[in-house]
Design brief:
Helices cover 41% and strands 23% of the residues. It has 2 domains: 176 residues, Sandwich (Jelly Rolls), CATH 2.60.120; 123 residues, Arc Repressor Mutant, subunit A. By secondary structure, it is an alpha+beta fold. Strands 1, 3, 4, 6, 9 and 11 form a 6-stranded antiparallel β-sheet that branches. The chain is built from 10 helices and 11 strands. The relative contact order is 0.11.
């Protein structure tokens, strides 16, 4: 069994290491990202928007995949707002709708001069509400982002953006109608917020825009690999354990059978009559449930201490240990050869009045129950170990 455990531990550690490595590779590769400006057939038109008298100066441009907007908000409007957006088009310059439903997140680097809060939003086409070309009728999920001069990487969950209340009111919708779809996205826009400074030259930069999605095929492969590989290991271990246990039990049987005197035990000549008398008495009457140390002392004439000393010197057991060894060895033989007898019948036939006590002693001796011992030997008889 020690050899099996060593082999199983080696394979367990190896499988665990392989599982961790493959798990890391599959999980890391399942996170996929693509730069917005590097997407196939991606084309756009830069558009700016501002409320009446919102700004005295507004310039927007895209430079090396970086959206830059420079402006000065005017104080003449109580709610000034300016924005710049990438309005999506096809190769012919006509408005286009992009399917972003597979993307879960969008990330970018935001930098603001001076520091402040900006608004980042989308324009998504609603088949029941939107009018082509009229972005005010498009649903506009958005999020507010804090940024400063140092710049920071921002990641937004595209499934949890917010629809502004003013847009719901303007389109006379139910206040609970705040859903949106990402399968028809017309624009991505960056604009100011109510916290933006008035009368201060300002600059907003959005760079490194990336779309993120998951490649679930890697995760499905990982799940299948883990289930199959660990199931195979479990099956291998159970089978090898059963074979090793069977071989171990058979080895114990072959080793212990010589203890049964009336069949295999060949008593060597003893110089002292007492030794021979004790061993012969135990070998012939071990199945007597009433046999005890007092009986042996009475019938052999050897005192109690001498009986234990003789058995310890000759067999390596005390009186009780040697008596149990004889009984359990015979019980193991009967379990294999007398398959029609019950466990309780076998226990009684070898000198045990209590089958529970017999089961306890048998398990201590053979590391398995009598039933498991019998089943293992039956299986070995049907399917020899390779």
């Amino acid at each position: 069994m020690h050899a099996l455990y060593s082999k199983a531990l080696f394979r367990l550690v190896l499988l665990l290491g392989v599982s961790i490595l493959i798990g890391y590779l599959c999980v890391s590769r399942s996170y996929h990202s693509v730069a917005l400006f590097e997407q196939e057939d991606f084309s756009w038109e830069l558009r700016t928007h501002s409320t009446n008298d919102a700004t005295t100066n507004l310039h927007a441009r895209v430079d090396a995949a970086r959206l830059i907007m420079e402006f000065v908000l005017s104080g003449s409007n109580p709610h000034p707002y300016v924005s710049s957006g990438l309005f999506f088009t096809d190769r012919n310059g006509r408005p286009a709708l992009f399917d972003w439903s597979r993307f879960g997140k969008i990330s970018f680097e935001a930098r603001c001069f001076p520091a402040g809060t900006i608004r980042v939003g989308l324009a998504t086409f609603d088949d029941k509400l939107s009018k082509p070309g009229d972005l005010m009728t498009y649903r506009s999920p958005l999020a507010y982002v804090n940024c400063n001069q140092d710049g920071a990487r921002v990641e937004l969950d595209l499934a949890h953006l917010a629809i502004p209340e003013w847009w719901v009111d303007m389109n006379k919708l139910n206040p609970s109608d705040l859903g949106y779809s990402l399968d028809k996205v017309a624009q991505i826009e960056v604009g100011t917020s109510n916290a933006s400074r008035v009368g201060t030259p300002s600059r907003i930069e959005i760079a490194g825009i990336e779309m993120h999605d998951r490649k679930y095929g890697y995760l499905y492969f990982l799940a299948a690999f883990l289930v199959l590989s660990w199931a195979a290991f479990g099956f291998w271990f159970i089978r090898q354990y059963a074979l090793a246990l069977t071989n171990d039990l058979q080895g114990r049987m072959q080793k212990d059978l010589p203890l049964v005197a009336y069949q295999q035990l060949a008593l060597e000549p003893h110089r002292e009559k007492g030794k021979s008398a004790i061993l012969k008495l135990l070998a012939t009457r071990y199945a007597d449930s009433e046999l005890d140390l007092e009986t042996v002392v009475s019938e052999t004439g050897v005192n109690r201490n001498k009986v234990n000393d003789i058995l310890k010197a000759e067999m390596g057991y005390t009186f009780i240990g040697y008596l149990n060894k004889l009984r359990l060895t015979e019980a193991s033989r009967l379990l294999v050869e007398n398959t029609s007898a019950s466990i309780a019948e076998i226990a009684y036939s070898v000198g045990y009045k209590n089958s529970s006590y017999f089961n306890k002693l048998f398990k201590e001796e053979y590391q398995c129950t009598p039933k498991a011992f019998r089943d293992a030997c039956k299986k070995e008889a049907r399917e020899p170990a390779l």
